[in-house]
Amino acid sequence: MSAHLLASGGGAEFEAPGIDIFDWPPLWSGAPFWLTKATLIVALSAIIVIAFSWAAFRNPKLVPRGVQNVGEVTYLFVRDQVARPTIGKEGDAWMPFLFSTFLFILVMNWMGVIPVLQFPVNSHIAFPIVLALVVYVAMIFLSIKHQGFVGYFKNMMFPPGLPKPLYLILSPIELLSNIILRPFTHAVRLFANMFAGHLLIAFFASVAYWFLAEKLTVLGAGVGLVGFLMTIVMTAFEIFVQALQAFIFTLLAASYIGGALHPDH
Amino acid sequence: MLAEAVTVLADEKFVSGSLGSVAYGLAAIGPGIGVGIIFGQGVQAIARQPEMYNTIRQNMLLGFALTEALALIGFVVPFVHP
């Protein structure tokens, strides 16, 4: 569990944690190869999301009490900030998907700052890829369903009202950005934020551990103190970034779906 | 002379160190400017029309996310292709 600390220990000199802190072997020797800390946390997150939604909405009261308040605030936030502004009137029909996507990513990200677990699952790119792929397939399917196959590419590559020669430049860029770059950046944005944040916290934490506990010297104590304080500051900042990224992922998913349903804007 | 310079530049022995960090620094310039513009203009827009706060903030975050992706790709690429 203490990979951060092990990464800095051992040698005579301080060694910053590298990408090896993301490598988790199977939980115990002889366990199936896929049963690692990451998959365990994903399963845990799914259970938390299901349990939370169950507790909040299983028996709704007209005057909400307890966990139903939190559930309704979250639901209203996703509906009023994400679904309605981007998709419009049909936004409410997409709420089940958007709400569970938001909550699932939020819980998965927040696992990065919960003690003992301390691993944002989305820092393994496989998980964001799957999430982005779901949105991508939905986007392509809905676009072709609502605009037709030819209409989809026509709306995407040839927006009306531009001088003719401009299409030579614009069309390939639009095609590239819509078909290839969209799912790529959608997944990489979430992945890279979690990856960088986890690496940053691990770095400051191992600085603090190394200079305050492992090799305590008069000169090094100041550095260790800075590392200690920065760990706290960065953890607070990470909680914010993790929530923001969950929101942005949902917002982009909704705007892709909205763009597929209403090609004009 | 020129050919020599070209071979020197091309020889990887002459370029060493943590190039990934340098590349990330370069990749962060453009998005840094972009994010600054987005939030600067966003704050200005909110100051002018506070009643449009929700719409402006949503578009601000959308533009921020799209711009930030460039910097993040610059951060990830050295890990993918060292």
UniProtKB/TrEMBL annotation, chain A:
The keyword Signal does not apply. Coiled coil: none annotated. InterPro entries: ATP_synth_F0_asu, ATP_synth_F0_asu_AS, ATP_synth_F0_asu_bact/mt, F0_ATP_A_sf. The chain crosses the membrane at residues 34-57, 93-113, 125-144, 190-211, 218-237, 243-261. It is found in: Cell membrane; Membrane. It is a multi-pass membrane protein. PROSITE patterns: ATPASE_A. Pfam families: ATP-synt_A. Keywords: ATP synthesis, Cell membrane, CF(0), Hydrogen ion transport, Ion transport, Membrane, Transmembrane, Transmembrane helix, Transport. Key component of the proton channel; it plays a direct role in the translocation of protons across the membrane. Belongs to the ATPase A chain family. This is ATP synthase subunit a. It comes from Actinomadura fulvescens.
TrEMBL record, chain B:
This is ATP synthase subunit c. Residues 22-78 form the V-ATPase proteolipid subunit C-like domain. It is a multi-pass membrane protein. PANTHER family: ATP SYNTHASE LIPID-BINDING PROTEIN, MITOCHONDRIAL, ATPASE PROTEIN 9. Belongs to the ATPase C chain family. NCBIfam families: ATP_synt_c (TIGR01260). It is found in: Cell membrane; Membrane. Keywords: ATP synthesis, Cell membrane, CF(0), Hydrogen ion transport, Ion transport, Lipid-binding, Membrane, Transmembrane, Transmembrane helix, Transport. Pfam families: ATP-synt_C. The lineage of its organism: Bacteria, Bacillati, Actinomycetota, Actinomycetes, Streptosporangiales. F(1)F(0) ATP synthase produces ATP from ADP in the presence of a proton or sodium gradient. F-type ATPases consist of two structural domains, F(1) containing the extramembraneous catalytic core and F(0) containing the membrane proton channel, linked together by a central stalk and a peripheral stalk. During catalysis, ATP synthesis in the catalytic domain of F(1) is coupled via a rotary mechanism of the central stalk subunits to proton translocation. Key component of the F(0) channel; it plays a direct role in translocation across the membrane. A homomeric c-ring of between 10-14 subunits forms the central stalk rotor element with the F(1) delta and epsilon subunits. The chain crosses the membrane at residues 22-40, 61-80. It comes from the Bacteria. The gene is atpE.
